[in-house]
């Protein structure tokens, strides 16, 4: 059987629909329960949501002309006595509203020190929040401002790693979040041409201001060398020269004592980055499965705002969803994992962590829908009870490509 291909969500052209409730479908509370760990992270303060009204308000550009770290915003909130973040209680209520009141931003960091060096991301987030597609949003997840940034205290480190475990849920939550995607990476400012970062091993041969001569010997001619704790920053005469130096330095063993060498400004495309590939995939993971559950799928199309909105370019617009109705969930999962493994990660060790986060979420969604009371078509071979219901050992081959081989109750 062929899965039904979901049409674009037309909520804003039709006017507001009736609110979604947990009683509308057996699958709703099961899928909403997948947000349990995210709720805990919001309640503990590991994740803070920016108050959408703070960014949306007239004159907010004067109050916050550029994006700040979470710790700086916390100080601003306290010193100026203005409400910048939702309280934990407000954040949990927004997530549990069944109306996608929380926006999760997926985008590519432009530099290791600050993700939005040009201000383009912040301007386009504000534009979205002031647009009809964003007018319902009450809270915003933006990693730089929602998670504690370096340098962190021990307590902030605990918050950060608690939050890291639920990053997929921020984008995946079927009822709690709308994903706002900024695929384009802002153009590199001229003042950052040629800038290169060398992360160094603590106590190694490059750790310290005295290692400049060794760097010059390995990298060639550069200007303005700056040693900062744990790293060097240098500038090459041209950006092309910087790219060549990075390529040469990243060859195996080319620069002993260096953990990583990379361009300061990261112009890598959105879909070539590991975390953003993951974020886009989990954003639509449940939606892809709903093509095989037409009852719940139709209900969400009628009642909810779009799940994914593009916010770059000419303006906010509903994302075009890939029509892969015949793909099956097994092939989809393999395709997504292959894309994550082929993408680039800045952090060492991030790739296997992200692949596992994706696998775990895909498994949780599959389990929740299996108990939703709405079953995709398929063929069952196995045992039945006296009432003619599947019970005991059996194999079910679903139309979506999934196969369950195990016990039935």
| Mean pLDDT metric | 91
Taking the alpha carbons of the first and last residues, their distance comes to 25 Å
Q: What would the principal axes of the Cα set say about the shape?
A: globular
Oligomeric status: single chain
Query: Strand arrangement, largest sheet?
Result: 1-3-2-4-9-10
Structural class: alpha+beta
Give the biggest sheet: 6 strands, mixed
- The percent range for strand residues is 15-25%
Taking pLDDT < 50 over at least 5 consecutive residues as the criterion, the unreliable ranges are 1-15
Q: Please count the helical segments.
A: 18
From the alpha-carbon coordinates, what is the Rg to the nearest angstrom?
Answer: 24 Å
Helix content: 25-40%
E-strand count: 13
Summarize this, please?
This protein is of the alpha+beta class and 409 residues long. Helix content is 39%, strand content 16%. It has helices at 11-14, 27-32, 36-44, 52-56, 60-63, 70-80, 88-95, 120-129, 143-146, 154-164, 167-172, 212-219, 239-249, 274-283, 285-290, 294-303, 329-342, 350-370; strands at residues 50-51, 102-106, 139-141, 177-181, 195-200, 223-228, 231-235, 258-263, 308-310, 317-318, 378-384, 390-398, 403-408.
Offer a few descriptive terms.
409 residues; disordered N terminus; single chain; four-stranded antiparallel β-sheet; six-stranded mixed β-sheet
Notes on the protein architecture:
- With 409 residues, the chain is an alpha+beta fold.
- 39% of the residues lie in helices and 16% in strands.
- Helix 3 packs antiparallel against helix 7, helix 14 packs antiparallel against helix 17 and helix 17 packs antiparallel against helix 18.
- The chain is globular and about 85 Å long.
């Amino acid at each position: 059987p062929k899965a039904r291909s979901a049409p674009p969500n037309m909520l804003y052209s039709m006017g507001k629909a009736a609110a979604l409730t947990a009683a509308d479908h057996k699958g709703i509370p099961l899928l909403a329960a997948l947000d349990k760990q995210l709720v805990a992270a919001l309640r503990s303060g590991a994740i803070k949501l920016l108050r959408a009204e703070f960014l949306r308000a007239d004159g907010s550009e004067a109050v916050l002309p550029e994006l700040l770290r979470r710790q700086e915003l916390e100080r601003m909130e306290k010193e100026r006595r203005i409400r910048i973040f939702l309280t934990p209680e407000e954040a949990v209520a927004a997530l549990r509203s069944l109306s996608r009141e929380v926006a999760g931003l997926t985008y590519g960091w432009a530099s290791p020190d600050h993700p939005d060096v040009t201000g383009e991301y912040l301007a386009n987030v504000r534009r979205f929040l002031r647009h009809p597609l964003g007018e319902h949003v009450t809270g915003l997840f933006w990693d730089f401002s929602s998670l504690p940034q370096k340098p962190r205290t021990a307590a902030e480190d605990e918050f950060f790693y608690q939050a890291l475990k639920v990053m997929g849920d921020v984008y995946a939550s079927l009822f709690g979040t709308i994903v706002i995607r900024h695929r384009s990476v802002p153009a590199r400012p001229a003042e950052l041409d040629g800038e290169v970062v060398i992360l160094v091993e603590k106590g190694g041969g490059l750790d310290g201001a005295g290692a400049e001569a060794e760097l010059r010997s390995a990298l060639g001619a550069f200007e303005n060398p700056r040693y900062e704790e744990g790293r060097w920053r240098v500038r090459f005469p041209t950006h092309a020269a910087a790219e060549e130096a990075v390529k040469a330095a990243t060859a195996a063993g080319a620069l002993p004592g260096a953990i990583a060498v990379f361009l300061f400004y990261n112009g890598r495309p959105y879909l070539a980055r590991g975390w953003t590939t993951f974020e886009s995939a989990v954003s639509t993971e449940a939606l892809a499965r709903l093509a095989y559950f037409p009852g719940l799928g139709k209900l969400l199309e009628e009642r909810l705002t779009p799940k994914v909105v593009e916010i770059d370019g000419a303006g906010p617009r509903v994302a075009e969803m890939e029509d892969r109705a015949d793909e099956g969930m097994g092939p989809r999962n393999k395709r997504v994992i292959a894309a994550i493994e082929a993408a680039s990660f800045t952090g060492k060790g991030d790739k296997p962590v992200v692949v596992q986060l994706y696998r775990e979420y895909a498994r949780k969604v599959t389990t929740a829908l299996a108990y939703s009371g709405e079953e995709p078509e398929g063929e069952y071979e196995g045992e039945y009870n006296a009432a003619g219901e599947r019970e005991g050992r059996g194999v079910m081959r679903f139309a979506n490509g999934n196969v369950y081989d195990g016990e039935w109750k």
